[in-house]
Write the structure tokens for this entry.
Amino acid sequence: MIAAHGPRLAPEGERRKQFIAAKAAMLEGRARNGQNREHVGSRGERPPLFQEVRDIFVVEQGKGIRLGRIGVAKGVAAAALLWQAAQPAWAAPAPAPEDLLPPPVPAATPTLPPPPVDAPAVDVPLPVAEPVMRWNRADAQALLAYIQTVESEGLIPADYQLSELRTALLAGEGAALDTIASRAFAWLAEDLRDGRTPMDARVQWFVVDPDQDATPTLQLMERALSTGDIAGTLSGLLPTHPDYQALKAALAATPRADRRTRDLIRVNMDRWRWMKRDLGDIYLLTNVPEFQLRLTVKNRIIRTYRTVVGIPGRTATPQLAETVTAVVFNPTWTVPQSIVMGEGLGPRLLRNPRSAAAQGYKVTRGADGFITVVQQPGDNNALGRMKIDMPNPHAIYLHDTPAKDKFNAEVRAFSHGCIRTERAVELGMTMAILGAGMQHEELVANFNSGKYTKVPMTRTFPVYLTYFTMAQDINGKLGRFADLYGRDKPVLASFAQARQLKTTQRTSEEPVVQLDNPL
């Protein structure tokens, strides 16, 4: 059972925490005796999230669901963590969605000269202008000492003006030391914060890392020099996710002779730097090559779900960082025109309305002859009984599926880009509890109605579609995953070359492939 951790609770919170622990023990006892039922009182008799998340571990039964008879002990533990993390959300409803990403650090007022008037307007990557500041000998020596340790972070000390900095230190303080030390600090800060890999080697990586906005290089250098804490400022840029520390430990334990393993570790350490340093308190994260999705609270995995991802090639799942804005019970599916007209489905169904109705399709022909086919809600709908909305230009989302046998395959790359999610109904209901404060009566009514019901989030959640070929699996064991889409090769190649200067490019410049059939 996972124990809840966090700051010390107020007296009332302590009593609730004790109540949860007592109920967990009681329910585990009942489970051992074959008694998993529990009286459910009126709203307000216990923390709603405790009750509702426990109940959300559901069993689908035909067209309905029954609640609370499986995974009760695990559900109590999960609820304890989720309830504690989500306490602020259960006050009065917020007028606008609450963003669960950590608040950004206020950016420093830029003091660099503005770009030339005739500079290219937009969408043209420009070289990043690094500041030059005054460095004394002690600070420059501290920087030199830190650079010599960055191999432990999967980086290459020689990339950061190592020999030039030594030479400048021998010459003493002055303009040369200022220039070399400023450049070395800026390059190292950029790579620790944003990753060493150039953007053109990050295939289908559309995650925009906001860290450079929250902690711009100018602000970092000012802080380091004003405090004299060079090492602390740079170390504060390292990713906070436990996987990064696990990879770092593996790198330290891997013999230098095993270059292939060391290179793979470094590639995946760098991928963590491509993302936001702190992913948030509650978030969803899927590792595409692992075929798994995690519901995570304070970097602790609460629930896991098998996934089906995009087929390699044009329909490969891209890497994104988006926001869950709504869940849809009993979604409809608008059939893409590649099927409606390309495969002749539309005209066929118009000729046979009875067949259309039997398959759950609603077919309409516009005045201009345009045929639209919409699959109505139901167990056979292509999106299953639940869709988790995360608006993005790629039209990628998480959803249920009627083809649940696909989750039993070892390699689960069958979709057209979207993430088919095992037990998506359970996940969607959990999101509705955490993000919209729904009670279990509403959840069951929405599901069993069979009608399209969209539940907007009043508290939003980040969702990350990542790509790691070495990472901790859902059981916490560090391992390798097959490079499903061949995305390691360009990153490995970039590490074998000299470091490239950073530009203003923030994400992949590859065309956005918005598939008309992203299932």
Observations:
- The two ends are 35 Å apart (CA to CA).
- Residues 11-92 form one domain.
